[in-house]
Amino acid sequence: MTESTASAHTPTVAVIGYGSQGRAHALNLRDSGFDVIVGLRPGGPTEQRATADGFAVVTPADAAASADIVAVLTPDMVQAKLYDEVLAPHMREGACLLFAHGFNVHYGRIAPRADLDVILVAPKGPGALVRREYEIGRGVPCIFAVEQDRSGQAEAFARTYAAGIGGARANVIRTSFKEETETDLFGEQAVLCGGASALVQAGYETLVEAGYQPEIAYYEVLHELKLIVDLFYEGGIGRMLEFISETAQYGDFVSGPRVIDADTKARMKAVLTDIQDGTFARNWIAEYEAGLPNYNRYRQADLDHPIEATGRRLRAQMQWLQDAQGTPDAAPDARTGTPQPQTEAA
Ligand code: NAD
Ligand code: MG
Question: How far apart are CA 300 and CA 298, in angstroms?
Fold first, then answer.
């Protein structure tokens, strides 16, 4: 690391991968005054998008060779091969290796070169939100961690990067690779993605099986959830209670614990145990390496659930959703299609 970059506030950053997080980080960092290089496989699926956004796209190897900070923002399952075959041989002596999720380092799939700083900056939100909040002058909170500090500047790099993507406008909290990895996996499995979608599907099925109209069931258990979550976001559960009726509050108090009870919590603890002892990671890696047979089946089952067709019909009547179609703002996760195991690292 040169003296100027070690002390400067604007190190050169190579963003490897231009998907959900990669695009948001690259755009925000550039707008914050960083020199940003985007590293992508030639002809890869997101190359055109990066070019259209005004980035000069180079190969991951060339990007890695010319940066002070290399941000690894490809899917987790390709990172180990990418690091071993492309990044490790090309990164500068003493450069900084940055992740947005600790999975590969925590579970020992990547053993970074001893001369590198190794840090984590994880925004607590999907990439589209990281970009949108930044554009309107706000930010998504970030957590950061330092795994290796060879330069003595690793924490400063993490804080500078978190500020550059807008996280410092909200909050930046120190964590460890272990804590970030385990809590992130737990959150998405038990509450945010797995828990929330299963709750919505079960609620919809319960109403429709009892003979109620699917459209009304959709509004009730999916559409209105946004309004509730907005209140959580603004002021916690207390704010939601202020805004709902006394009848809704009483129903919440007596029926919430009937649905999510001590057994549910015991199963949540089992989910956490699988994350902590590496069972989940082992299963996911095996699934990926087998060509995603179960993943594809589970995904198709979600897409085929009747609530999806009902929702498509009803959302077609909300013009503002049509106007926003296809923009990253409208699609919190702009990825479409199914990831496929990568046979080439770059
Ligand atoms: P993504 O799937 O949206 O994007 C992947 C990008 O990497 C694409 O540009 C793709 O073309 C490229 N890519 C794929 N294989 C590659 C290879 N072998 N070499 C070079 N480029 C390759 O990924 P994402 O969801 O943004 O996840 C990136 C990282 O951010 C992961 O570590 C993830 O855990 C973390 N993260 C994601 C989110 C989120 O909301 N999606 C939130 C926090 C952290
Ligand atoms: Mg997360």
Answer: 5
